[in-house]
Amino acid sequence: MKRLMPINGSDDRTQLTAGREVLADYGQDEAMNRRKALERGHSDTRVFGGGKTFFHPENSRLSASLLRRLLKLTGMLDRGRRNAMDIAVRENLVTLPRLPKSFDGFTVLQISDLHLDSRPDFAPCLAEVVAPLEYDLCVLTGDYRFHTQGDVRPALMGLSLLREALNGDVYAVLGNHDSSDMIPDMLTMGYELLYNASVPIQRDGQKIYLVGVDDPHFFQTDDLEKALTAVPEGITRMLLAHSPEIYRVAESADVDFMVCGHTHGGQIALPGGKVLYKNARCPSRLASGNWQYGSLKGYTSVGAGSSLLDVRFNCQPEVVLHRLHCP
Fold this sequence. Notes:
single chain, alpha/beta, 25% helix, 6-stranded mixed sheet
């Protein structure tokens, strides 16, 4: 399988341009056109307004500068940066009533909120963590770059390095930090993008469906109805979304299990993991870890990377192995 490797100079730009032919499959619908229009008008200096929440701390350079100074003055900056590199591997056991018997024990690796270009040594660190893991399928739930605007190539280089460490099929959705310009190169690397789409996963003659939607938080270009068009009734549905904010829609659409991220679990939390700010319009109990809403089971990852500043306190970064089981 062809991989996009870090390239310098004009060859890098050629690789980016060449892959854009693949975007044609994704660029002819209303949601993608709307996203691209929002991307053109979006500024990473926009701190207030837009999206589902009014305040966007990830775009506040002043907040990042003040926080860095405060942590440096208190002697906590280096500790916070070390914490951000201490990535845990967590296991989540999920019982799904409609899961086919052949999928009992099926394991899905979830990596969320990677922000791969936050620092030069982060992508190699993450790749080292996931390389020895055993799983049947890998999913990425968005936010591959650190800022919300600017050059996508550093994040793409991180994605290329990560892809070499991942085994088998890898499915992905976009987050609010990502650009549609990243799509063709992600496809070239071997990532399968679920842009308001679904794919059947087969095992021993039985199926479940993996469903993915575009960012429901800032761009709000998610279309679950369209994503489910080809999914038969009564079959197990696992949903990838960047944010938990579509939990009501997912439950009403008969989704069995939803995995998401975006909140970072607060990233800087109180002792015991109490979330100070979740940056999502959803109940606090949906901001991290396992949750259930009606018949919908869900998991919100606190993420592998960091935003605003590459620090974490009382909120260890993670990758998650979801092990699916029959009742």
